[in-house]
UniProtKB/TrEMBL annotation, chain A:
Region (Disordered) residue spans: 286-306
UniProt cross-references to InterPro entries, sorted A to Z: Cell/Rod_1 (IPR042177), Cell/Rod_MreC_2 (IPR042175), MreC (IPR007221), MreC_beta-barrel_core (IPR055342)
Protein family according to the UniProt entry: Belongs to the MreC family.
Keyword terms of this UniProt record: Cell shape
Low complexity compositional bias, start-end: 290-306
Protein name in UniProt: Cell shape-determining protein MreC
Gene Ontology cellular-component terms listed: plasma membrane
Organism: freshwater metagenome
From TrEMBL, chain B:
Keywords carried by this UniProt record: Membrane, Transmembrane, Transmembrane helix
The protein's name in its UniProt record: Unannotated protein
Transmembrane segments: 31-47, 103-126, 146-165
């Protein structure tokens, strides 16, 4: 009896393994049934994600706050003073005002760059078990969003549209390990490739062996044919440190992105670029700090008056 | 494993899949994310016999393959979880009935979740996928294992009760 059960299980195991391998082969050969099934799931999940997004965002933020607690004392002090200011705003509507601020930043950057954009709310995040860095936004083909369009945040590049349904789209974030983008260094105009690594660090590899990288160099997107998947001139990040790699022909550097990919509330999808892009107009400029001049006048002593 | 229980389990898995994709994945857990779906699936698989664990692994894998955020080929999760179902049932036969030993059950499911993600990464390497930095991936695997350990102690008693509810009178004997 037990042997019979084992044989039945083994037969089932073999059948299911073969079926799985068959499905993988179909998917790798680009059969649309498997691709469409994910799009259909996305269409079904989008309304639920949209509904849960409003209700669940305070819980998600709570865990995020716990995670970053105690990073540095200075940061904590700054946050405390900032928190006091924000408390007043919370009474009004914390979530809405935060999203409006981000939207203003995104639209401001898009306006300066001459980009025509479609703004969207982030309604979902990719599951950690898939090892891919994605977000779901509430804009789709009905809003003019299509696959391979650039997605930007209030400070610069965020990612690219991976797939789109009528009402929602999946964005492949720039820190995904499969993400690659051509960039140019604003200072030297050297061209390189920026690669995501799954976390918050990025690697820049120059294509030109004679090119040079310096710390704090600003990186702008190079752009693609017909501006898809990437539009030109969008701020991507800045060089944090230059790697000393004698084994490679070209220089490498560690890069920090302008966008905080962990706290995206509102993003914009660039649907059109006017006049060939913004060139270097979007290079982030440091905000000037006001200098204070103090004049000291010596007061007359009693001896001097005598 | 009866057809009715297979259908019921698939419905439960679908429900947890929706919860995972729309709510749990939005939480920014310390260390790394937590897969509630994987925890529930492995919990259900651990309670089945060999035939049931393999079948449930395949069904659960197919549901997970539907994840819109997934970059891996469709069928990869089904393949991995079918294999995990087989390995689970083999080990379970040597350990015995879990329902009387909750600690063993929790540890088994947590170790299973960790092993499943590791197998997923190894298969990714075999299929030539780019999984990113090794350290980040290990952090995800370990983090998920820790969260599964913490949450499974709360979730699994409920799963056992749910599963007992779906048993036929013949299976109860």
């Amino acid at each position: 009896m037990a042997a019979g059960g084992n044989n039945r299980s083994r037969l089932l195991l073999v059948i299911l393994l073969v079926t799985s391998l068959f499905l993988i082969t179909l998917d790798l050969r680009g059969v649309s049934i498997t691709k469409n099934s994910r799009s259909a799931t996305q269409s079904l999940l989008a309304p639920v994600q949209r509904g849960v997004s409003d209700f669940f965002s305070p819980v998600g933020n709570f865990f995020s706050d716990v995670k970053n607690f105690g990073k540095t004392k200075a940061e904590l002090k700054d946050l405390k003073s900032e928190n006091a200011k924000l408390r007043k705003k919370v009474i009004f509507n914390k979530d809405t005002s935060g999203q409006l601020k981000k939207l203003k930043g995104v639209l401001d950057l898009a306006g300066r760059g001459g980009y025509k954009v479609v703004s969207a709310r982030v309604i979902g995040k990719g599951s950690s078990s898939t090892f891919s860095q994605t977000i779901t936004i509430d804009a789709g083909t009905n809003d003019g969003v299509n696959k391979d369009m650039t997605v930007m945040g209030e400070f610069g590049l965020v990612g690219v549209i991976k797939s789109a349904t009528s009402t929602s789209s999946i964005v492949l974030l720039m820190n995904d390990p499969t993400f690659r983008i051509g960039v140019r260094i604003a200072r030297s105009q050297s061209v390189g490739v920026l690669m995501g690594e799954g976390d918050n660090t990025f690697t820049l590899q120059l294509l030109d062996p004679s090119g040079s990288i310096e710390v704090n160099d600003v990186l702008l997107s190079l752009g693609s044919d017909n501006n898809r998947p990437f539009v030109p001139g969008l701020p991507v990040g800045y060089v944090k440190s230059v790697k000393n790699t004698s084994a490679t022909l070209t220089q490498e550097a560690s890069v920090k992105s302008y966008s905080n990919l962990g706290s995206l509330g509102v993003v914009s999808v660039i649907v059109k670029v006017s006049n060939g892009g913004p060139k270097d107009a979007l290079i982030p400029r440091p905000t000037p700090t006001p200098t204070t001049t103090i004049y000291v006048t010596q007061s007359p002593t009693p001896e001097a008056t005598n | 494993m009866s057809w009715s229980r297979a259908g019921f389990s698939a419905l439960i898995l679908l429900l947890f899949f929706v919860v995972q994709e729309s709510a749990i994945s939005k939480i920014d857990f310390p260390i790394s994310g937590f897969s509630l779906y994987l925890c529930v699936l492995l919990g259900l698989m651990a309670l089945e016999d060999r035939f049931g664990a393999i079948a449930m692994g395949f069904i659960g894998g197919l549901i997970l393959d539907l994840s819109p955020s997934s970059d891996s080929p469709f069928g990869k999760w089904a393949l991995i979880l079918t294999l995990v179902g087989y390995l689970f049932s083999r080990n379970r036969e040597s350990i015995g009935d879990f329902t009387e030993r909750p600690m063993a059950f929790v540890l088994f499911v947590s170790a299973g979740a960790t092993a499943t993600l590791l197998i997923f990464l190894i298969f990714g390497v075999i299929l030539g996928e780019n999984n990113g930095a090794v350290l980040t991936n290990l952090q995800t695997v370990v983090g998920n294992g820790i969260w599964t350990l913490l949450f499974s102690s709360v979730l699994l008693p409920g799963l056992v009760a749910l599963r007992n509810y779906t048993l036929t009178s013949r299976e109860r004997l």
